[in-house]
Input
Amino acid sequence: MYDIAIIGGGIAGLTAAIYGQRAGKSTIVFEKMSFGGQIVSSPMVENYPGIAAISGSEFTERLLEQATSLGAETMQAEVQGVEKEVPFAGHGQGGDEEVSKALFRVRTAKEVFECRSVVLAGGMERRLLGVSGEERLKGAGVSYCATCDGMFFKGRDVAVVGGGNTALEDAEFLSEYCKRVYLVHRRETFRGEEGTVRRLAEKENVEFVLDTVAEEILGGQAVEGIRLCNKKEDKCFVLNVSGVFVAVGQIPKNEPFASLVKLDEAGFVVAGEDGRTSVPGIFAAGDCRTKHVRQLTTAAADGTAAALAAVAWVNGGK
Output
C-alpha cells in the first residue's frame, strides 16, 4: 500500500515524489518511457532558476536521484487505468469506528498497486509534423518549445509551423531575438487570435507563408532549411533557416483516465493550481492539466502543489 501513486516520471511527477517523501509519505512513480520527460532530449537548459546551464539529461538524472534517495520507488511500466475503490471502515485513535479515505488501484499490464491517493502527471506529447528529417534533427534545430530554445537562435532565421495561438505566440516571442521569422500555415487564414495576427503583420522581421505545407526538414548535423510546398500555386521551394519550431498541436497523455476524472475538450485534466481534480483523492500536475504556461518551473510548482494536496488528503484533510 502506497500513500501516493504518481503516474508520470517527468519534472512534475518527480517533484511530487520528492515532496511526498519529505512529508513522510510512501510514493511510487510510474513511467512508461524514460524518466525526466521531454526535457531529457534538450541539449541545454538555461531557464531554470539557480542553474545557469545544464543538459536536459543531467537535470533529470539529478532529479531522479534526489527522489529515489529520499525513498521514492520507481516502476518502468505503462499505467493502463486507475480504479476507485469503495471507502472502508477503520478505527480512529479513540477506538471509534470511522470511514477512512477511499482506496485506489493503479493497474499496469502485469500488476495492480493499491494506494491512498493518485497524482496524474503524464505530461503531453507535441504533435509531430511527420516529415522527413524531423525525428533525426530533434534537438539539433527542430524544437517544440520556442520559449525553451528560442535564445539559441538569436540573430538567425527560423521557421514556425502552425496556425493556432501557440504558433502565433511562438512567432511573436522569436521575433524579439531572431533575424527573421517565417510563419508557415497550411491555410489562408490563422486559427489564432486576431490581435496577435495584427501585431505580427506589423513586424518587419516576420513573414507569413500561407497555403503552404512542410514537406521536409533539411540538414546534416543540424537544421539548414525546410522544404515547403504552396498548395494553391503547386510550387515547392526551400527556406534557408537554422531552426524549425513545430506548433501544430499538443496531445495530453490522459486517455486511460478519461472515464475517471473530468477532462476538457482538448483532453487535459480539469484541475486548478492546487491540483485538485473532479475526483477527491486524485490530483493533476504538469502539462497534462488545464493551464496556459507550460515550463519546467511550472511543472515543478505543479508537482509541489499536487503532492502537498495529496499529503493533506492522506492525513485526513479535504
